[in-house]
Amino acid sequence: MEIKEKQLNRNKGKALILLYKLASSMVFIWFSFEVLLFLFYLIGNYQNFLDNSQLLILRILSLSAFITFVLCFCSLVTLLFLLILKVYNWGNLIRIIPISIALVVNILFLSYSTIITQLSEGI
Q: Angle between the 2-46 and 51-84 helix axes, to the nearest 10 degrees?
């Protein structure tokens, strides 16, 4: 009986593992894109980019921060399900740390870009 339960959990876990790996890799890609956009925005301030170009960079940064926030949330939920289903052992809890850091930085990027966009539009 216990063996069948473990096999059932493993079968459920395979789809979750695939979802977790996909979400984690997408978080890494989108997070790297965000950092590059933010650096591009900072360089644009010193290189005197046009205001419209800066606003476009900020809007793209806001959109990518929102997408990464959703992916981080999905990744964290899937990891917690994997831990609850005992597909991963609790020693893999350290995987939460980079995703949590990315989540916090995404919130900062999202709030920064939104505030600067609102201030520049005079609202």
A: 160
